[in-house]
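Re-running D-alanyl-D-alanine carboxypeptidase to confirm reproducibility after the cluster update. Everything else is unchanged from the original entry.
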Amino acid sequence: MILLLGLSLPVKANEYIDNMMKIISPAQSQIAVNIWDVSNGKTVYRINDQTLMLPASIQKVITAVAASKQLGKTFQYETSLTYDGAINDGTLNGNLYLHFQGDPTLKRAHLTTLINQLTELKISQISGDVTLIAHASNQTRAPGWAWDDLGICYAAPVSNFIIDRNCAKATLSPTEERSTVKVKSIYPINIKTTAEFDPTIPVKDAQMHFCELHMQRFDGNHYKIEGCYPGKKPIRLAIAVNNPKLYSQQVISDLLTQKGIQFTEVKTAENAPTTQTVIATHYSKPLPDLLKIMLQKSDNLIADSLLKQIGLSYFHQKKHKVNHHDDITQSARSDSFTLGARAIESIMLEIGLPFIEANITDGSGLSRYNLLTAQQMMSLLQFIKQDKDTQYIEQLLPVSGRSGTLKHKAYYNQPPLKNVVQAKTGTMMGVENLAGYITASNGKQYAFVIIENGLSAKAKKARLAPFSALFLQTLNDLPN
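Result of re-run:
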């Protein structure tokens, strides 16, 4: 339990918070706070709420609202298997097409189910081409993503070609000389290692001894692991696929071969002939289910895949115009983070939330170029409470001590904050944010935005408790 110094004299809510802030405000980091009373629609407290700061993953709430407005609850990703020509005596005298849409939840097992349909049609040979169809992805990583994150699965490239989250699993193990790396055969990647395990260094002292692993990425989904790892236990690796298009070609080639289907090669293209016969289609879960995963698990891949779909839908299907007077340039005709971010800004403006000073770069909050104010984020939380199309998003947020990223989070999985906070976390190096709703002990519900930037690792380790937890306990104890 968090222990705070209570105030015995009756005071107004904002005075109570002001007094407590003198005790709990962090000395080094920068904070911005905005609190809104849901019952009467009044602002209870604010500080630095007009200051632009790094949002991290609370930005996913913006993506959720924009996706609900633009794509709708019935939106699903589609992955289809089609062909042209004719099937005769076990041979497809024509071409086979597999249409990708950038489904962030598409798995190898789903593709296996699609390709099994070829066996049902008794196809054992394809005379023409096997072509994977998808819009070109000019940007698979957003501007402002940290360079040292790019080889890790939570920053996997966002392409229209996605299989198993564009994430390959491997195991790095010590040997008598140095180390060895084992990759399951289902992952068509190549990893070499010169890394060394040092059993004389405790894991907690690794940084002190400069014992760190490094990974180099090369063309053709080749990787090299170097450096040092403390201890002598094998470690699991989750490596982001560097070239999703090549990876998808190799996976589909492998699946066809496993089924004994003869073909020449697997190609890629942006378009397919207009006349085709559909063999089978795999559909993702509908948008609310995708948003639940995105918000509960803080799923970056779903967030940024949806950002791209928002951009394509807004500018292409609705035929909106860039800058309100110029047609979309040729360079923006494929999916991109720039197009998606521009669409979200336009959608926010159309629903009455002008994020004019904000800088939206991606849908996940991974980019260091994102900038938002606490007041802007609060306007979004207010919109969710009042808009019938997006009210359901509140119920998708993690609940303290019960679900998602708040289930096991320290200070939130115990009284007084357990079960009373429903909010989106936002954490990265130097950033620890929280935005959502709390039902206080006085019976009122408050919407809150707490942004903390400039938090060093040393300051984080030395503090009594996270500022957000201390502040929310203060909010929980507000007098009537």
